[in-house]
TrEMBL record:
Enzyme Commission number(s) of this protein: 2.7.13.3
Identification of the protein by name: histidine kinase
All copies of domain Histidine kinase, residue ranges: 453-643
Catalytic activity: ATP + protein L-histidine = ADP + protein N-phospho-L-histidine
Coiled coil ranges: 414-447
Residues that span the membrane, as ranges: 394-414
Length: 643
């Protein structure tokens, strides 16, 4: 069976904060007793958060339940620090249950609050969790980016337990890249830190990870030694969650080794531990292992029951890579039982699942090739247009030369018709001149459009990058601030690339839906949040029909107007909050950009490229643009377009 990317003990290394002197059950009993006392909402929310965190080692459903209670109470108190921690606690429960979408959503909410409060250590913990979620989604490049953002913060703050978590997570990525010596190096560094800090619960994970890495290197003796150390330590620490995962990883090892008698004993213990904490993935893998054992023992009916249950759990969790094993074993089970129809059913199911996976990969590849094709097609069209212009110029010069020759011959042979020939020649020249002027006007219009785009988007972004580089020399000590400054520059450079992609997106589409446009605006707002201290919000009226379509030309102009408005507010308004509000009424699309900045006097201010370009874009799509501002009262820019 193929080992999943997250088969290592990464799951138990996210933001660990256990009290080492007590078992999870003892902590839960103490917290439940405290919750029964008379408490303020703030204190009770904190207790619920700790219950959610601690229950993750005992029962994941309870962990999520108490995490949700903590969030609800924290929202009532208005304490943002408490709310951010409650989101993180709830995210941990979702994450360990395998609900990655829900986990990502609440961790991003926590990150937004921590960034606003400049809570660097809290931000680092969320970076670590988001990195793990991306790792579970097989997005290793993005995952390691988050891990490397968190590591220097933990090291600077002296948070050695969290730093050990990052080292372990990086080791998992190296393991998935089959670089096992490098993975062992990081696992051992993490284990040394945990032993020194007496972080025994996370040390269980280090032992299990080392066992897996040595298994892949073929050193079975050392691998089994580490697996047994992980199991013994989990039993000693009374940690059923870590115990379930340790048994699961040990079972993988025994199955690959072919030790079926030992596999049955370990899988039974692992299944019991997994059910105790409702760990569905561990349950599924243990049932699969038991199904393999029963098939080997020719107990096909019993094997069938285990394998069908395992397959159902894998499918419910979206574990496509893992479901193939039970399907193959079920083919064997039903064939041995003489049930040809069921055996054939799982053959077809195996093939359709494999085909679905391959089709998904093919679609992704096709989309990439389509983008390259469209780019090449656009280049070809530009070349064809240039060729047509050269051909027209050649025809023009040839026609002029021919007219001159005919005029000379006509003068010599038909002197009386000289005036008529001259008039005809002038008419030809006038038509060609008008055609040339029209072509030049179109080219000039395109140049103006490109110039505005360069000013509104790429120019603004590159100006910020240059300014950021200049400002680096004013920071002391430079070593402590250089890295985040360069990260800021990198983010804005990426934004520049996104702006170019926005233009290509609009050029390649005949029409786009409002949902596509809103998605682009939200993406711009989300990126803006990461590059400024100003609070950026996107507000969308509920119940909107986002399936309506608008032309691609209109969509890119709207996007550029909003980008210009937001960037002007960030740069000039001294605002602490900016909102982009989207509504749609009576076939009219409306965007509003408001800020609580210093405002300006509309009668005194001189319109620069920013306001002028926004008005020009609005005129081109026949939209109404209004600007309301008073000194000290903020600014509101409204764009109204009839569909």
């Amino acid at each position: 069976m193929k080992l999943r990317v997250w088969s290592s003990f990464l799951l138990f290394l996210v933001l660990s904060s256990y009290v080492f002197g007590q078992s999870p059950r003892q902590i839960v009993d103490s917290l439940l007793n405290s919750a029964q006392q008379e408490n303020t909402d703030e204190t009770l929310a904190a207790i619920y958060g700790e219950l959610g965190w601690t229950y993750a080692a005992i029962n994941l459903d309870s962990a999520i339940y108490y995490g949700q209670l903590a969030v609800e109470l924290s929202e009532k108190t208005g304490d943002e620090t408490l709310l951010a921690q409650s989101y993180s606690d709830l995210g941990s429960g979702y994450l360990q249950k395998g609900q990655l979408q829900e986990a990502g959503e609440v961790y991003l909410k926590s990150l937004e609050i921590r960034e606003a409060n400049r809570d660097s250590l809290g931000m680092a913990k969320v970076y670590n969790a988001l990195g793990f979620i991306l790792q579970r989604k097989y997005e290793s490049d993005s995952a390691i980016t988050y891990f490397l953002k968190a590591l220097p913060i933990f090291e600077k703050e002296g948070a050695l337990l969290n730093a050990a978590t990052i080292l372990n997570n990086i080791g998992v990525i190296y393991q998935n890249m089959s670089n096992y010596p490098k993975a062992i190096e990081f696992y051992e560094r993490a284990a040394v830190m945990r032993e020194a800090q007496k972080d025994f619960r996370n040390l269980i994970g280090s032992y299990a990870n080392l066992g897996t890495a040595y298994k892949y290197l073929g050193d079975f003796e050392l691998a089994e030694e580490y697996f047994q150390k992980a199991i013994d330590l989990a039993i000693r620490e009374d940690d059923p969650r870590n115990l379930a995962v340790s048994y699961r990883m040990y079972a993988f090892f025994l199955q690959e080794k072919g030790d079926m008698s030992r596999l049955e004993e370990v899988a039974q213990k692992g299944l019991e531990a997994a059910k105790a904490v409702n760990a569905l993935y561990e349950e599924a893998t243990m049932e699969y292992a038991l199904g393999v054992v029963e098939n080997t023992k020719k107990n096909y009916k019993k094997a069938k029951d285990y394998l069908e249950s395992a397959a159902e759990k894998f499918v419910s969790q979206g574990a496509e890579d893992d479901v193939f094993g039970p399907y193959l074993e079920l083919i064997t089970s039903f064939a041995a039982l003489g049930d040809a129809d069921s055996s054939r059913y799982y053959v077809n199911l195996y093939q359709s699942t494999l085909r679905s996976k391959e089709e998904k990969a093919a679609k992704e590849l096709t989309a990439e090739l389509e983008t390259k094709y469209q780019t090449a097609l656009k280049d070809s069209q530009i070349s064809e247009q240039q060729l047509q212009i050269r051909t027209k110029n050649f025809q023009l010069y040839g026609s002029l030369l021919m007219a001159l020759v005919l005029g000379l011959v006509g003068y010599l042979l038909y002197k009386q018709q000289k005036l008529k020939n001259r008039q005809l020649e002038q008419e030809v020249e006038l038509k060609e001149a008008l055609a040339q002027i029209e072509t030049q006007n179109k080219l000039q219009e395109q140049r103006l459009l490109i110039a505005r785009d360069l000013h509104d988007n790429i120019g603004a972004q590159l100006t910020f990058i240059i300014s950021s580089i200049e400002n680096l020399k004013y920071f002391e000590p430079i070593k402590e601030t250089l890295t985040p400054r360069y990260e800021s520059i990198a983010n804005f450079t990426k934004q520049t690339i996104r702006e170019l992609r926005d233009t290509i997106w609009a050029m390649n589409s005949g029409a786009v839906t409002l949902e596509d446009l809103v998605g682009r605006v939200k993406n711009f707002i989300q990126q803006g949040k990461q590059s400024t201290d100003v609070k950026l919000d996107f507000v969308q009226e509920e119940g909107l029909d986002l399936s309506k379509k608008i032309s691609s030309a209109n969509s890119i102009q709207i996007l550029r107007i909003l980008q210009e408005a937001v960037q002007n507010a960030v740069k000039y308004a001294d605002a602490s909050q900016i909102q982009v509000i989207f509504s749609f009424n009576e076939n009219q699309l409306q965007f509003q950009v408001t800020d609580n900045g210093k405002g300006f006097d509309l009668e005194k201010v001189k319109a620069g490229n920013g306001l002028g370009n926004m008005q020009k874009r609005a005129d081109e799509i026949e939209a109404s643009l209004s600007v309301k501002s008073e000194t000290g009262r903020g600014t509101e820019i409204s764009l109204l377009l009839s569909l």
